[in-house]
Amino acid sequence: MTTDEVQAYLYENIPLSRAMGIEVTTAKRQKVVLSIPLEPNINHRETAFGGSMSAAATLACWILLHLRLLEVPGDIRLVIHKNKVVYRSPIKGRFTAVCHLRDEAAWSHFLSMLDRWDKAKIILKSHLEYEGIQAGEFSGSFVALRA
Prior knowledge:
It contains 4 helices and 6 strands, in the order ααββαββαββ. It is an alpha+beta fold.
């Protein structure tokens, strides 16, 4: 899928992404980068709302897994199981959510479990960047279920 196709898919299937103004800037099987404007995600302190930061970080990981699961046969549902976000500094403007998957062994194990049990769990991390600094860290457990 191209970045435009991923963005269209998000806007159609996860309406919150449209409301947040999320832009997909990179959508590859190794890396996803989302750009998020402050205005629709602002809080009463004129910084990014924590819920928006968490949602963006979650979506960066979810998109990466979604793209990889498109390569796997069958109808597979992907959901988040649990997550943790650490907020390092306030965000006062446009920011990015970045997810990398560098651990191919973890991905192979995930696929093996999916094949064997029709469900699998994997932990992914992403981070939030603002003005060249890491403003937040996300770790989430995602579950894939074969329908």
